[in-house]
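Lab notes, practical 5.
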Amino acid sequence: MSAISSPTTTSSSGYDLDDTMSLSPDDESGYASGASSEPSIAEVLFTKPHLTFLNRQLQNLEPEDILRWCTTTLPSLYQTSALGLSGLVIMDMLSKLKLPRPQMVDVIFLDTLHHFPQTMDLLDRVQERYPLINVHVFKPDQAETTEDFAKLYGDRLWEANEQLYDWTAKVEPAQRAYRQLQVTAVITGRRRSQGDKRGALPVLEVDEAGLIKINPLANWSFKQVQSYVKENKLPYNELLDRGYKSIGDWHSTQPVAEGDSERAGRWKGQEKTECGIHNPRSKYAEFLRQQQMKEQQEALQQALEVEASAQS
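Output from the prediction step:
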């Protein structure tokens, strides 16, 4: 597997703020508006009845068959993975489909610069296991290291401004990846058994910006995932042997007690259940708009204070 680091100097988010606000699903089609400024993402159209029909069919298929279907049906298909167990299972299944090079599915990995060292070590081991799969690594804009990130946003942005952290470390890099790679569809490792907002997860969905998401393990339990990893001797994050079940950034991930839900260790004590990538994009467009207004108000206030001081 060859790791490809994407440039981190691009200031564009992948979706301009005004464009993001306008990317709402069409009431009839169930897909993004054709007026989207991202034509590469609006190439495959589903009507709502078609989407419902496909989900009924895909619901009864094994994950490998779902993967076969999407690799032959959806153009510009990628897998997004933070190297959790579900993502590793999907990667292994894809490798065993023996797809010709044009149909092989590349991986998008978001390096938030705040992963556990064990996660980055796993990336190296995964590369050794799957040398034919390309991994595209995207980092926060204008930051190559944790130190760079801290210089831009302070030492603990996730505490000072959680939404800005999610946008900067995860959502913006993801949108930049989708734009630069011209992504039409992504394979995710989300499952219904993970609970919370994922409890009613369909196998096939389309987000508000028109990005198609395929969830081939939607029907699987954590036990099924664990069994597959063990039976196929897959590399995995060694933190899973230390009481962790779901692993994200080091500052928002804790071990869980026996019997706790799979994602109980993520953002413990908070209402939050998603890192931001799978939240509606309009939420972040509105957040950024408010941030911009706040900065403008602060700049105006400072200018008025300087003027008042000069006149006194």
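Observations recorded by the TA: The CA atoms of residues 1 and 130 lie 5 Å apart. The longest helix spans residues 281-311.
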